[in-house]
Amino acid sequence: MCPENYCRPCGFLLGLPFALLSMLLTFIGILSWVFATLLICICPCCICVAALVNFALGLIKTPLNVIRLFTNQCPC
Prior knowledge:
Elements: H1 9-42, H2 48-60, H3 62-73
């Protein structure tokens, strides 16, 4: 059995379609992360590309953040 704080199946089920939609943002994040990483390897003087890498990593974590948001908001 899972602890009472973490077992919220209604929140998980409500957040699942939105997490699946946010997977599109994850793919965009992966592509931009690869592009920015290659650009940093070619020209390490590009400081603004580091911001793009951080933004891409945020996009990659989006589905997990969506699921956490829904499970924390739903009481059951």
